[in-house]
Specification:
Blueprint: E1 2-9, H1 17-33, E2 36-44, H2 55-63, E3 71-74, H3 77-80, H4 84-96, E4 100-103, H5 113-145, E5 158-161, E6 164-167, H6 169-183, H7 188-197, H8 209-217, E7 225-227, E8 230-232, H9 242-261, E9 281-287, E10 293-299, H10 300-303, E11 314-315, H11 316-331, H12 334-380, H13 386-398
Parallel strand pairs: 1-2, 1-3, 3-4
Antiparallel strand pairs: 5-6, 7-8, 9-10, 10-11
Length: about 400
């Protein structure tokens, strides 16, 4: 009996499991009529046939190397692939493994003419796929041109009315609040804190930084939707003005790239302790209303809300200048200078002694090596006594 496997595929969510069941049923009937035993089934769901990035398809090609079956049965050849180039490559690979692809619905005779007929079917499958993609693209363009909703995720602040996207006033007010606050120099974390205190959440949970930044960067809120080089201005109603959107976008970009392009050393990091709660003071940065960067130290306990500490933030340049000035003042005192000089001299003398000891050890080692070489030379000349052996052992121990 001939042995085979079945490969089934559907390409989009508009098709479903019934499509797979129908393909399998037709393939099984074909196998039964032709006295073929089906050993396995490979199925790819919601996978396009225009490329071979399909898990079960790749698994099937790999399994063909074991040469346990001779045929692959498909509902139609377009289930195998819709790309003639990849079809030719994979059929050659299968042919080398002794495997042939059979179509349950397309009766191709086992004659030389079958090569032309099969190529025609594969060419038509690729043409159909390309034409369908073009029609879908054209349909989506027309949908965008009319300002109609195309499906998929909907932005916060909008809702659907029929097929049109309209403003959801309740959430739109939150979006405007975010833009206005950020434009006025309020940090995102403080915006989130205010919204949380007002019990305003996103999908039932408090806003997080990424979700707020995504809103602040999304041009659709200014009424503009871009798809490649195409600009659509009648799909998303404007929630924030163009001026405030551009102002916020510049501030977001400045904050984003400012952190990466400017590296600031906090001299007192891991050295400065909060006088209120004992937590370390950590380095922080922010942006003023005019877009300039400021740096300061903030209590870690207050930052992470580990306690009720209300220690105020300290400007970086203020506290670092105070500390460095104090250190310089202390180091300038004559009594301390004498102590420092004394410590330096002691360290230098110790270093000299250590270097002298090392030099002596190196010299001694050279002497031992020379003595060993002399005794070995004597042994090689035949001068072997108990004395030479004992001396050699003693020198090797010293070495």
């Amino acid at each position: 009996m001939k042995l085979a496997v079945v490969y089934a595929r559907y390409s989009s969510d508009s098709q479903n499991e019934q499509s797979i069941e129908g393909q399998l049923r037709v393939c099984e009937e074909y196998a039964k009529r032709n006295d073929i035993l089906i050993l396995n089934t490979y199925i790819d769901r919601a996978m396009t046939g225009r490329n071979d990035h399909r898990p079960d398809f790749q698994r099937m090609l790999k399994d063909s190397n074991r040469k346990e079956w001779n045929f692959i049965i498909v509902y139609k050849f377009d289930r195998f692939a819709r790309n003639r180039y990849e079809t030719a490559i994979h059929k050659k690979e299968l042919k080398d493994n002794g495997v042939k692809v059979l179509s349950a619905m397309e009766n191709i005779p086992d004659t030389p003419e079958a090569i032309i007929f099969e190529s025609m079917l594969e060419g038509y499958a690729e043409y159909y796929s390309a034409e369908l993609a073009q029609k879908v693209k054209r349909g989506m363009f027309e949908t965008r041109r009319k300002g109609l909703y195309q499906g998929g995720g909907l932005l916060y602040g909008y809702k659907i009315d029929g097929r049109k996207i309209v403003v959801d006033e309740n959430n739109a007010a939150v979006v405007r609040f975010m833009y206005e606050q950020y434009a006025n120099g309020v940090f995102v974390r403080d915006i989130i804190k205010t919204l949380t205190e007002k019990h305003i959440f996103y999908k039932g949970k408090p806003f997080v930084k990424n979700s707020v930044y995504n809103i602040l960067r999304n041009e659709k809120y200014s009424g503009v939707y871009k798809h490649g080089d195409e600009v659509v201005d009648n799909m998303y109603p404007q929630i924030v003005s163009t001026d405030i959107f551009n102002q916020v976008r510049r501030k977001v970009a400045a904050n984003k790239y400012g952190k990466k392009s400017v590296k600031t050393d906090f001299l007192l990091r891991q050295k400065l302790i909060c006088g209120n709660c004992g937590q370390p003071m950590c380095g922080e940065s922010g942006t003023t209303k005019n877009g300039s960067r400021i740096y300061y130290y903030k209590c870690y306990g207050r930052k992470k809300q580990l306690n009720d500490c209300n220690k105020s933030m300290i400007r970086k340049e203020v506290i670092e200048s105070l500390v460095t000035d104090t250190i310089i003042q202390k180091l300038s005192e004559p009594s301390l200078i004498n102590i420092i000089i004394s410590k330096i001299m002691q360290r230098q003398e110790k270093s000299i002694c250590e270097n002298s000891s090392l030099s002596l050890l190196i010299k001694q080692k050279k002497q031992v090596d020379t003595s060993i070489d002399n005794i070995v030379a004597a042994i090689e000349r035949g001068i072997v006594t108990n004395a030479t052996n004992k001396r050699l052992q003693s020198l090797e121990t010293q070495q």
